[in-house]
Write a structure and sequence with these properties.
Strand order of the largest sheet: 2-8-7-6-5-3-4
Largest sheet: 7 strands, mixed
Shape: globular
Helix content: 40-55%
CATH architecture of the largest domain: 3-Layer(aba) Sandwich
Mean pLDDT: 96
CATH class of the largest domain: Alpha Beta
Distance between the termini: 42 Å
Bound molecules: 4'-deoxy-4'-aminopyridoxal-5'-phosphate
Strand content: 5-15%
CATH topology of the largest domain: Aspartate Aminotransferase, domain 2
CATH superfamily of the largest domain: Type I PLP-dependent aspartate aminotransferase-like (Major domain)
Low-confidence stretches: none
Structural class: alpha/beta
Number of domains: 2
Order of helices and strands: HEHHEHEHEHEHEHEEHHHHEHEEH
């Protein structure tokens, strides 16, 4: 039977308790949300929603074509200019998702004959970028700049190191300065994915690379998503103008993909402007993360100290993690649940988003529910 092997895979997944299911979210959920990536609570901000609506009214429901044909509007170029200026880079290029931006950056900067050095904890989109790149990938230990240095030393020719700035599973930060030093010492480029840093880290949320003093460097390229702290959808690559111009000509997920929907570009632009006016939003998300961690730890839970706005709590097993998340849900709290294969070390976790708009009472309630439902 065609696709007969699916049932076999499915059985194995069921036996391991790792089947995933889709659960549509109601528009007005009664649940307290610590599961989304809406770090600054901007996805429903009236200015962001109006940014989307106004863009759709002006430009229509879709971009109508690839960026190189009809898919570039004034909104796309404005967003690129303002994103680059905000984060401190020469130029930016907007993509239909952060995933596409990562595929673009790694494939276009890891050409045939190059070495791509990738952190073992990197996001799936960077891993897929490595798989698609024509260069040779070497995976190194998590957050280990010395291993990056050693790997780069073995190679003669173009090279690039690739890392998340904040790792999505545990919310820990990469050693960006040491990574950049290792790359510079070997004449290699550094590509970092700031999906979880933009809007949270750096001055007023200008991102982890800006916070680490790497903004505007000619050997550093940053990818971001517009779908987390900016509450919109889409992605971007930021870096030197010559690198961005290269992506326009070489990145397949730019050339062959329909441009970002105008509504998403409008929402992202509105959120970016809002963040520029209200820089305290970033510090608030970090403060919520610190408070959440302190309270979870005080309650005896195994929470990882957060470097940004992701707080991870270890669970004894995948089954118990699923049950724990379901019990939280039944008690009015929505939390993320990470299990294999999304966790490379095999340790399942509840994953909490320290949204900057959570009140002290909501943080307290969340910790109480998580504590009361623990395995
Ligand atoms: N990088 C990281 C670290 C992420 O967590 C995500 C989103 N899960 C992405 C990239 C992909 O971004 P997008 O959702 O915009 O495709």
């Amino acid at each position: 039977m065609a696709f007969g092997w699916i049932e076999e895979q499915d059985r194995a997944r069921r036996e391991a308790g790792l089947v995933r299911v889709l659960r549509p979210r109601p528009a007005a959920s009664p649940l307290l949300d610590l599961a989304s990536n809406d770090y600054l609570g901007l996805a429903r901000h009236p200015e962001v929603v109006e940014g989307a609506a106004a863009a759709a009214r002006t430009w229509g429901g879709g971009a109508t074509g690839s960026r190189l044909v009809t898919g570039t509007t004034a909104l796309h170029t404005e967003l690129e200019r303002e994103l680059a200026d905000f984060c401190g880079f020469e130029a930016a290029l907007v993509f239909s998702s952060g995933y596409a931006a990562n595929l673009a950056a790694v494939t276009a900067l890891g050409p045939h004959g190059s070495l791509v050095v990738s952190d073992a904890g990197n996001h799936a989109s960077l891993i897929d970028g490595c798989r698609l790149a024509r260069g040779t990938t070497q995976v190194v230990g998590h957050a280990d700049p010395e291993a990056v240095r050693k790997a780069l030393a073995t190679h003669d020719g173009p090279a690039v190191a690739v890392s998340d700035t904040v790792f999505s599973v545990d919310g820990d930060a990469a050693p960006l300065v040491a990574l950049a030093d290792a790359c510079r010492a070997h004449g290699a480029g550094l590509v970092v994915d700031d999906a979880h840093g933009l809007g949270v880290l750096g001055d007023g949320g200008r991102g982890a690379p800006q916070g680490a003093g790497l903004a505007g460097r000619d050997d550093v390229v940053v990818t971001v998503t517009l779908s987390k702290s900016l509450g919109a959808q889409g992605g971007a690559v930021l870096g030197p103008a010559r690198v961005i111009a290269h992506l326009v000509n070489a990145a397949r997920t730019f050339i062959f993909d329909t441009g970002l929907a105008p509504a998403a570009a409008g929402a992202a632009l509105a959120a970016l402007r809002l963040l520029g006016r209200e820089p305290e939003r970033a510090a608030r998300a970090r403060a919520v993360a610190a408070e959440l961690h302190a309270r979870l730890t005080a309650a005896g839970l195994d929470a990882v100290r957060p470097d940004a706005a992701v707080v991870s709590v270890r669970a004894p097993s995948p089954e118990e993690a699923v049950r724990w998340a379901a019990d939280c849900r039944a008690a009015g709290l929505s939390v993320g649940c990470f299990r294999p294969p999304s966790v490379p070390d095999g340790i399942s976790r509840l994953r909490l988003t320290a949204r900057g708009d959570l009140s002290g009472e909501q943080i307290e309630r969340a910790v109480r529910v998580i504590g009361d439902t623990r395995p």
